[in-house]
Amino acid sequence: MSAPKILSTGRCLPRRIVTNQELSRQVDTNDEWVYSRTGIHQRHFCEGESGLDLALGAARKALERAGLKGEDIGVCLVATFTPDYASPSMACMLQKELGMKEDTVCFDLNAACAGFLYGLKTAHALLSDAPRPYALLVGCEVISRVLDMTDRNTCVLFGDGAGAAVLRRDEEASWHTVFGSRGDPESIWVQGPGPEPSAVHMEGKAVFRFAVEVVEQSIRQMLAEEGCDINDLDLVVCHQANARIIDHVAKKLKAREGLFYKNMDRYGNTSAASIPMALDELVKQGVLKSGMRVLTVGFGGGLTWAGALLRW
What we know:
The protein is α/β, with parallel strands linked by helices.
């Protein structure tokens, strides 16, 4: 048995902060309406920065904190549904910019908001015979480029950002995971390259029902495998889509106050970046410490979901 050991984290955000009040000048909304339904007050939007700029910023912080350089990395993965290019991949551009060796395994993957955890599972597997023992995993999104700014039901939800982690395999450790998919092009969808402009479309009620179902189900499955109660955990870090989703699940599971971390008030929904950004914020705050039992759950378009319970 083995598990991924996260050695360090990093995050990077665009400079521009967009408040609900600013959005109210573009669409029929206000801070009270948005916050009461989502828990979001503001988000960051790129203005001059590229996705690669964000990914590089987060990756460099994670590498520096791990005491490593690009040449030490054997696997480089980027989870994203909003890359700068269909090709080359963002992972390949990181390889170039960070000076990784040419035999480094590099590619992007798209599991929407569950992408970071899909990447964690993939990186752990690839490290079993990678040329070097460390992986760089980045969740990076520039969702502002695929928002319909006339649709108040979606444009208020999302933000841009990147989170990164450096990890290795720990052959003495164990972890529990959950992965799932349910093909559904109607609840959440974004057009790909083609004549029609890309934009996020979402059926909010359907997504809410899906999210509360799979998050609770995933957590219960991993708790059963671990043989513990929800309140035996040190932290639960869900994809930061909506405060009402997280609060609903926490209440159903009778979790203690503060166990489920929330930061969407400052960043909005950053899709594949939300979990690594939250982990980095918790490390920076001194809340997330070595040895803690941490449960993470992601869910989103596809539909996809994923969970991981591991020791920090």
